[in-house]
Request: fold
Amino acid sequence: MSFENEIGAQPPLGFWDPLGLLADADQERFDRLRTVEIKHGRISMLAVLGKARIAGLARSGHLTTTAGIRLPGDLTLSGTKFSDIPAGLAGLGKIPAGGFVQLLVFIGFLEIGFLQVKEDVEAACESKMDEQGWDAAKKDSKRAIELNNGRAAQMGILALMVHEKLDNK
Reply:
């Protein structure tokens, strides 16, 4: 099956599948990978926003944590405060194991919950675009913009994490 005419296959690269993940794929496999790509792009856009640096407010790190904005109180029953967790990747080593388990369970609930309402959300988005009077070409343009912004954000957050590790912060 050919995917050269799908949204996201655009200049200068066109359809790009360097690992051959779609060499023998059907439409269902393509749709699954596209859904994952969009989801990762959205998460990456939020991650880049979270890593934003504003001149004069913070030298580096997460905007909110570097500015000193933290949840009040304790993160754990043993007395670890939210303010004790550093910004960025350094914070991963400071979160207790039980906290990671809670994060994974929460993310799992989000995934399962989204799967339950995915079609309703997509239908609502489609109706909003129809209410705006958008034709098929404009809808495809907006979808391509979101896809490309997500791709850029995935590369951007990866670069920010590498930069953070190189600076040993």
